[in-house]
Each structure stands twice: as structure tokens, then as C-alpha cells.
Amino acid sequence: MTDLTRLTAADLAVKLAAGDVSSVEATRAHLDRIAAVDGDVHAFLHVSDQALDVAADIDARRAAGEQLGALAGVPLAIKDVLVTTDMPSTSGSKILEGFMSPYDATVVARSRAAGLVPLGKTNMDEFAMGSSTEHSAYGPTRNPWDLGRIPGGSGGGSAAAVAAFEAPIALGSDTGGSIRQPAHVTGTVGMKPTYGGVSRYGAIALASSLDQVGPVSRTVLDSALLHDVIAGHDPHDATSLTDRWPSFTAAAREGANGDVLKGLRIGVINELPDSGFQPGVASSFRASLAVMEAAGAEIVDISAPHFEYGVAAYYLILPAEASSNLAKFDSVRFGLRVDVPGGTVEDVMAATRDAGFGDEVKRRIILGTYALSAGYYDAYYGSAQKVRTLIQRDFDEAFARVDVIATPSAPTTAFRFGEKIDDPLQMYLNDVTTIPANLAGVPGISIPSGLAEDDGLPVGIQFLAPAREDARLYRVGAALEAALVAEWGGFLLDRAPALGGSTPGGSNGGAR
Length: 512
Prior knowledge:
Blueprint: H1 9-18, H2 23-41, E1 44-47, H3 51-63, E2 75-79, H4 106-113, E3 117-122, H5 156-163, E4 169-173, H6 180-186, E5 189-192, E6 213-217, H7 220-230, H8 248-257, E7 265-269, H9 279-294, E8 298-302, H10 310-325, H11 345-356, H12 359-372, H13 378-399, E9 404-408, H14 424-428, H15 435-440, E10 444-451, E11 458-464, H16 470-488
Helix pairs in contact: 2-3, 7-8, 8-16, 10-12, 10-13
């Protein structure tokens, strides 16, 4: 009998539409999988008690002949940064413990309308501040490839849930790499759409000029299918683009079945030398480029001289915006309240924020408040915004010469718990290749490029495209994915040893 949890979302959707399997069966299989492995992985903060009822409703509507969406009946995991009416929304913080939202985030509402079945809310670094999911107030999520290692962050829960076959697809958010970096270390696919391409309404804000919601999956096609569901203009989001988006699903199918790599110009950044990356990451990246070059792509050296300042600019812009956004957690309107007998409103607010926020959130609030303070605004926040403009110009000049830019998705494979928790700078440098896309608002995708030859852990390759060219990333990503899957003889995640897989020998266990 087919293990329904091992099917891609696309394959499961075909079986559901054909009546070969019911949504109740698919949902129950994933709930059983969560019950079996999530005690070890801890991908979920809350598992829905309504999932089977929702699935039964989808089955009844399908039986009645109703025309349903392409993913109707497919289970979905939701990052806890997205508010939901039927499950708590905490953003991984004690200050929102037990909070029930009066409305759904737009992407959640669109997913429900398309017939997807929410399985639960996934773990994350508190308020999306982190690269390892070690900063969750509710304990860390563990990497399904090695339970002693991090699953990336801030969206480690969504990536781990998909990697552990607890959900076929998931929703995440990406402010500086929080979808793509977890994808890199868990062997999954993570897509950050063009800024404004997917509504942020109902996504608990971290840095409003950087945040973007996107899909997490095991295949490029699955991400495209979910992206088609959540994309489009939303009048509730003032930054939402009014563009009519092409079918991302069609783009992914074209990439997997067409000859899209022939003649493709792929930019490789001169300022990102191998010396800054773990050897296994660098060799996997070069091997993937070689595969694409053999298929007819042209590798072009490009310069992006201001990318090296991206981390510094980002860690001024993000804390400044976070300081402003998190001011709403004041003990008065919603969330945690720590009473101080005889104290003033300011005393209660201070006590509440001290008890409710973790160390990393406090660190960034302090940094951001300082950067915005009188006498320092121009020197810090203002200067960071100027660097942001220079990075945007680097992208403009690069895309005048190439179709996409390729980089390793992160400098290292998954590191061990505690390895970087006391060194914020080293933690922040995990996002060195992903941050520029958020600063410029361009789309980026990370797909698995194999296992690092030095430690056998997953590695991802990132592609970046001009703003509004998300479909281009699906074509390119699906084309490389198809080539690599053919070489591996299957998908990378079938090899995850911590969950019953086996790391392959020979060339498949190496760089690709």
C-alpha cells in the first residue's frame, strides 16, 4: 500500500482528484506521522483538532461534483507567524502564548478557499528572529537529517515538517532567508516571492519592508502549486502588487520537461569566493553549475560589490523596523500581561516585555531603538538604507547581463545545537547569500543540490531573478531539479537517515 505521506503534493492531488484516495485518508496519514515522529522533531507547536472535519468536508464537496482547486484535500502546515482563527498564533513567543486571532491571514484564507487542509502551526524563532529555531520560546525544532542539528531558521518548523514527511507542503515567511536557509539545511525547496507578490496581511510583522510569505515543499512543482494559490493582489496589504501573475505551475512543468537551460545566462558573483563557504557547500555548488553548463547554460562572472555590506545594512534596517513593529506588545491591548502591584502602566509594560520577550528579541529591539534614536538615525538607519539602494543597483546591473544569479543558499550545512547560539555575528552570517534578495525585493528560490561531501548533510543552491520574474525561477529550478533527480535516482529526502532513510554511497553521497 502506498505511503501517502511520501507522495508529493502534486501526486497526492492527482490521486485525490481521481478518487483513488480521500482527503480524510491523506490527512489521517499525516496526523499519524506527526504523532509518530514529532516528539523527536518538534516541528509543530499546535496540531489542529479540526483537520479531519475539514478533510471530510472536502471529500463531501468532491463527491457532490463541486469543482475544486488543484490542491483541494492536500494537507498543509502553517508557520506560526501567520494568524489563524481556529488555532493559537504565537510567533514563537511567550508574549503571545494562547493568542487567538479574530481573522485569518490572507494566505491562510486563500489556502482554505482552495481546499487545503491545515494540519497545524509550525515552530519558529521568536518573531522570526533567528537562523536556527533555537530562539523559539517553546523549544527548538530538530533537523530530520540529524536530530542533534538545527533545521535552519526562522522557519525551521515548516522546513522540518516537510522534510520529515509530516506535511507535503507548508507556508513560511522570509525576511532575510527564513524560507531559503531552512530549505538548504533540510534538503527541501524554499521560495521567497517578489516583495509584494504575496499578501503579508495577517503575517505578524518583523520588518515590514523585508517580510515576504512563501511556500515550502519537497519539489519545485509543489512550491509552484502552492504559490499559485497564495499569489495575487490583496487590498488589505498596502504593499501588495496589482500585477496579474502567470501560472507558476505551468512554469515549473515547462522547466521539468523543456529545454530551458540551453542558452540560459547564469551569473556567479565574483565577490563570493569559495573561501567563505564550507568545502562541501562550495563543491556542491560548482557541481550544480557544471550540470547546468553541460545542459547548455552559460556561466557568467558578474560583480556585485555591495553585497558584502548586505548583512551589516540588514542588521540595522531589520532591528529598526522590528523595534517599531514590536512596540504594539505593550500589555494593554492583547497578549501577555504581568501585573505589578501598585505599579504604573510603564511598570506593567516593562515587566511584561521583560518576561515575554526572549534574549534575541530584546537584543534586536535595543539595537533598533538605538539606530532610530535622535543623533544616530542618519548615521545608522539612514546609511543602511543607502547601502540598500547600492545593492539594488548591483542587481539591476547584473540582470542586464544575466537571466538569473546563482549562489550557495547558505555558507554551511546544518550546524549542531548550541554551536553558534552565543555568537550572534556568526549566526547572522548564515544569511549572507539570502539577505540581498530581501533588501532588493527580488525573488529567490533554494533547491536541494545534493549532500555535502565532507559531512553528508543536505546542501542547497539559490537562484535569484529580477523582480516579478518568479516564474523564471520555477522554470530554472525545475530544470536543475529534474537533472539532479535523474542523477540521484530519486529525491534527496528519501535518504534522510534520522527518519529511516539511508545515506547513499558512491557519487550520490558526495557533492551532488
